[in-house]
């Protein structure tokens, strides 16, 4: 079994003679002449091997920068639109027939009290429920039939915000 | 495993460092944009908006109520009407008539009638209006009863009132 290689205390005491040192230096000399063509070929080969990696890194770096710019643009877009708000719940909206806008006050005054309001819609609804003879003047929609749509037309007309045509 | 050391070219930085630098760039950019937006954005009252309920009552006294029509508007405050619902009595439980254009405004006319034999009398809730109130000004409403009638179509004297509540 070999002895442990703990020669440190002895190495500092070892001294080689000058001829021995010269011989050793000549033996391991590294100034081997390399032809410039070989040097260039080695350099070209090294560049060919390393440049694609460098190109990949550059592309990735630009990709990260582009992603950052895209995120910033998206953020600006969201901020420009303002805070995201929840839409209100769907509202039970009633249809707003065009006929209601052109409702003639004299025609819609079913109870003949000089006003057109919800009581006229009630009066016409009651007439329809009584199944009595209908009058042509009750045809509010002008479709040739007196029915629930005529009642709705009066009711919708009286709640219109712009009621210039009925009052 | 690739060593995290400079490459043989000497001027290329490690990919991890470039990646981290990109992430930091994005984070700092976003933070700067948010800060700039907070600094220049107008302080709108929408930030303090809340939902509220307006219960509308009609008191027809001893008469049975078959039809009503009222108009509601705000005199003060930033209020937007969101939804209009029916009342408590079966005769007026369906949503009343109103102009859809009133939604998101502060004024609405509402009407309903019933040909049912079962009609309410006294004070009854005829409609519920859901609104959005923005800002710190307490809204003030004005409500006016335009018509009320019995089942035989007679116009009656009735009163209308409003009760405010917070939406759940």
CATH topology of the largest domain in chain B: Immunoglobulin-like
CATH architecture grouping of the largest domain in chain B = Sandwich
Q: Uncertain spans of chain B, ≥5 residues at pLDDT below 50? A: 1-12
Q: Low-confidence parts of chain A lasting 5 or more residues at pLDDT below 50?
A: 83-100
Strand content of chain A: under 5%
Output mean pLDDT of chain B: 84
Shape of chain A: rod-shaped
Q: What's the β-strand tally of chain A?
A: 0
Q: What kind of sheet is the major sheet of chain A?
A: none
The Cα radius of gyration of chain B reads 29 Å
Return the average pLDDT of chain A rounded to an integer: 76
The end-to-end distance of chain B, rounded to whole angstroms, is 59 Å
Biggest interface, chains and residue tallies: A-B, 45 and 52 residues
Helix content of chain A: 55-70%
Task: Describe the protein in words.
The complex is a heterodimer of chains A (167) and B (168). Among the domains of chain A are: 39-79; 98-158, no CATH class. Chain A is built from seven helices and no strands. Chain A has helices at 8-11, 18-27, 36-81, 98-101, 105-108, 118-130, 148-158. Chain B folds into two domains: 12-41; 46-166, Immunoglobulin-like, CATH 2.60.40.680. In chain B, 15% of the residues lie in helices and 44% in strands. A four-stranded antiparallel β-sheet of chain B has the order 3-6-1-8, with no helix packed on it. A four-stranded antiparallel β-sheet of chain B has the order 4-5-2-7, with no helix packed on it. Chains A and B meet through helix 3, helix 6 and helix 7 of A and helix 1, strand 2, strand 3, strand 4 and strand 5 of B.
